[in-house]
Amino acid sequence: MSAWLWAGVLVVAAWAAHWGADQLLTPLRKLRKQWGLTASAGAAFLAIVTASPEVAINITSAARGVSNIGLGNLLGSNIISIPLMVTIAYFASRKQFKNNPKHQEHLDANLLALNKRSVSVLSLPYLGIIALVAVLTLPKAWRGLQPIEGWIMLGAYGAFLIHAIVKGRKEGEKVEWTQKKIWLSIAGAFAIAAGAFFIVKATENIVTALGISEIVGGLFITGIITTAPEVFKTWSVVMGGEVTAGTTSVIADNAVTMTVAFFPLALVTTPVEDFQLYWVNLAFVGLMPLLYSVFVHQSKQLHGFSKWQIFVFDAAYVAYLLIMAFFVLKLF
C-alpha cells in the first residue's frame, strides 16, 4: 500500500478510536452526575475515557516494538491540543446562550469564559506532572522512560484524579442506565482497540515510506491526527453552552496522556535517542499549561481568555514549529 492509502487508514482509524471513546463516555457521565462532580472535577474523571485512544496507541506501539511512535504521539498531542482547543472554544462561544445569561458579559468583553477553579483543580496539578516527567527523564544518569518511572507516573495520575474529585464535589443526582448504552459502551471499547492498532500500523508504514524517524512521525502525524476529532467535540460542547467543560477537558486529557499513556512506554524501556528533540518538545508541553494558568490568573472580575491571549497560544505553537524546522530537525 502507498503512503496515501495508509494516510486514509490512519484518518479512519483515528475516527473509529474516538467514536469508541464517545460511546464509553456515557456511563462515566452518568457516574459523574451520580457522584456530584463539578465541571472541572468531572473533566479529570471523564478524561479516563476521552484520552483512551492515546493510551491505546501507546500500548499498541509498545507491544509492536515501535515505542518511539508512542513517545512522539505523547509529546505532539500535548503540545498542539491546548492552543487548538482554546482557539476552537473561543470561536464556538461567540454566541448567546439562553441557559447562561451572564455569558453576555463575556461576549461584550471579547472573552472566552472560564471557571477560575480549573487552574487549581486541573492546570497547576498538570504542570506538576510535567515537572515530574522532566525530573525523571531528563538527567543523564537515568535519561529515558524506564519501568520504575512508569509506576511513579501511574501513581501521579491517581493523585491528580483524587485531588480533582476532592476539590470538586457537590450533591449527586439520580441517574438511569439502559441496556442499549451498555452495549454501545462495549462496542466502543472494541473500536478503541482496533483503531489504535491501525493508527500505529499506518504510522509505521507512512514513516517508512517518507524516510522519517518514528518519533517525528509520532509528533507530526499520529499526534495531530488523533487530536483532530477532539476539535468537533470541543466545538459541540461549547456551542451547547458548557464553555468551561469544553475548554478545560483538554487539560485533563493531557494529564492522562502524560501519566497513564506514559506507563506502557516506560514498561518496555523507551530510550531518548535524540535528546535535543526530546527536551525542546517537553519544554513546549510545559509552556502551554503555564500560559493557561498565567492568563486565567491575570483575569479579574470576568475569568477567561481575551482575544490577544488566544493569539499568544497560537503564536506559541507557530514558534514551536519554526524551532523544530530550523534548529532541531534542520529542514532548511
TrEMBL record:
Keywords carried by this UniProt record: Membrane, Transmembrane, Transmembrane helix
Subcellular location per the Swiss-Prot or TrEMBL entry: Membrane
Pfam families per UniProt: Na_Ca_ex
Statement: the UniProt record of this protein carries the keyword Protein transport: no
Domain (Sodium/calcium exchanger membrane region): residue spans on this chain: 7-165, 182-324
Record carries keyword Transmembrane: yes
InterPro entries recorded: NaCa_Exmemb, NCX_ion-bd_dom_sf
GO BP annotations listed: transmembrane transport
TM region positions: 74-92, 124-142, 148-166, 182-200, 206-229, 250-272, 278-296, 308-329
Membrane topology: Multi-pass membrane protein
A cellular-component GO term for this protein: membrane
Protein name: Cation:H+ antiporter
Organism encoding this protein: Cyclobacterium lianum
